[in-house]
Design brief:
This protein is mainly α. The chain has helices spanning 5-29, 39-61, 76-103, 105-119, 125-147, 155-161. Helix 1 runs antiparallel to helix 2, helix 3 packs antiparallel against helix 4 and helix 4 runs antiparallel to helix 5.
Length: 162
């Protein structure tokens, strides 16, 4: 019996999308899953698939906590603040994509992560700094050192170094 239908539906939707990506999207757009070019998208999709299956399993076993149960919003203010937060997150991600080639991966990611933490309500600077630095260092090590895939340096830094 499903204890948490919302999480189960979310996990099932993510799992379905991951299967679609692994079976159709990645092979048709990137290449066969055995190709080197398809390794990274396949690994990320596989990781999301595993997490979505774990979410579905958790939804089967653990009921919704009382604090997490959906309550109807008290008024328009709750819906408006949610829409503003979502719009701000979309704007930050659009600016991130635009500024990535200009300012480079490290600077753009640092600013974007801090901004996302702040709009989603995280106010402890030690937490923000620790998660941001650990994430950026981990991504740098994975891409630059282990995979040999260069991250964008940015035209600003290139001009500064010249």
């Amino acid at each position: 019996m499903i204890q948490n239908a919302k999480d189960f539906k979310l996990g099932a939707g993510l799992a379905g999308f991951c299967l679609l990506a692994l079976v159709y999207l990645i092979p048709s757009q990137v290449g066969s899953l055995t190709d080197a070019d398809a390794m990274m998208p396949a690994l990320i999709t596989g990781f999301i698939l595993v997490l979505s299956l774990l979410l579905m399993l958790q939804a089967l076993r653990r009921p919704v906590a009382e604090a997490d149960q959906e309550h109807p919003p008290a008024g328009q203010a709750v819906r408006r603040s949610t829409k503003i937060t979502l719009a701000a997150a979309v704007a930050i991600m659009a600016a991130y994509a635009w500024l990535l080639d200009i300012a480079g991966f490290v600077l753009t990611s640092l600013v974007a992560m801090v901004a996302l933490f702040l709009i989603f309500g995280v106010r402890r600077w030690l937490t923000i700094a620790a998660i941001t630095v650990i994430t950026l260092a981990g991504l740098y090590v994975c891409f630059e050192l282990l995979l040999g895939a260069p991250l964008p340096v940015g035209t600003l830094l290139e001009r500064f170094l010249d």
